[in-house]
């Protein structure tokens, strides 16, 4: 059974969740500016992409980060926008009309009470959203393990944990030898865990990566945010451990 995501604590969700904040800002922009302009190919126009890069304050995707790699920004240069746009469309908050993305009636209800939508957004995004480079089969396969992933992170992230800390528990026999850490199989498993599990939790705002003093190639330590405890009640909160099956 998938762990239930149900917001109960008194937290500032928009401040903690990059995804919810990005959806609020995009919907508000569309509502106040007469829509979000689209290019001839249907991508969000550069005017909005620049605005989003400046205002989203998305970790690792600030305007400084993005412009350090690109002279101009298109929608394809800002991966968080792919998710924000997909979720806005999935929840029918924006609709396409000619060369614009326009707010729906539901969008205005969302803007009035965005926290009321968090449970739905988080559940759909975490458990069923198909990220770029993933397949529906991979998402469905991962659904069977979300209770393990969340309970394991719930325990290991109390003092902070790395991707390798989690891999050493999930695949103890594979990482039993020092040279295993450099193997292609371990790299692949680490990548799947980072982009299929850890990054969605960070983009939702349940985890935060501490990257102080690290280079772009180094991996940080992950810590739970106040939003984690506010919306997740897990077996390991009571038992203190989790069986790996």
Automatic annotation (TrEMBL):
The protein, known as: Uncharacterized protein
Which species? Answer: Rhizobium ruizarguesonis
Lineage, uppermost ranks: Bacteria, Pseudomonadati, Pseudomonadota, Alphaproteobacteria, Hyphomicrobiales
């Amino acid at each position: 059974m998938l762990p239930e995501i149900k917001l109960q604590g008194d937290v500032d969700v928009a401040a903690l969740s990059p995804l919810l904040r990005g959806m609020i800002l995009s919907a508000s922009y569309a509502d106040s500016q007469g829509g979000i302009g689209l290019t001839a190919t249907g991508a969000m126009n550069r005017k909005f992409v620049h605005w989003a890069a400046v205002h989203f304050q998305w970790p690792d995707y600030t305007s400084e980060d993005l412009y350090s790699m690109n002279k101009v920004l298109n929608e394809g240069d800002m991966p968080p926008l792919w998710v924000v746009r997909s979720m806005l469309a999935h929840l029918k908050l924006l609709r396409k009309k000619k060369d614009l993305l326009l707010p729906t009636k539901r969008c205005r209800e969302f803007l009035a009470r965005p926290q009321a939508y968090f449970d739905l957004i988080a559940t759909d995004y975490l458990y069923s959203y198909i990220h770029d480079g993933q397949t529906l089969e991979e998402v469905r396969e991962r659904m069977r393990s979300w209770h393990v992933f969340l309970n394991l992170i719930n325990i290991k992230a109390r003092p902070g944990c790395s991707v390798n800390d989690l891999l050493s528990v999930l695949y103890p026999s594979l990482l039993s030898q020092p040279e295993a850490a450099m193997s292609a199989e371990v790299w692949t498993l680490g990548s799947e865990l980072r982009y299929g599990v850890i990054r969605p939790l960070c983009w939702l705002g349940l985890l935060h990566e501490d990257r102080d003093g690290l280079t772009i190639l180094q991996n940080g330590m992950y810590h739970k945010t106040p939003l984690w405890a506010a919306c997740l009640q897990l077996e390991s909160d009571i038992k203190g451990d989790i069986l790996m099956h």
